[in-house]
Amino acid sequence: TEYRLLCELVKQPGRVLVPAYLTEKVWGPEYEEADRLIRQAIHRLRRKLEAAGLRGFIATKKGMGYMICT
To answer: Which parts of the chain fold into alpha helices (H)?
Structure first.
């Protein structure tokens, strides 16, 4: 799940991706708890990226979505 999420973010660096888009691409359109799923997955992904030395690689744009910092 985290890998698919990272792939979607990396495909469009510098562009803010809204949670609905990420949910559909990663989990499919049948998921309703999109915001919670995404927040949890982003949190786990950030921990792993930070452990690899990539602090601040994923940015949160409050009220909008997430993006890869370029």
So the answer is: 2-11, 19-26, 34-51
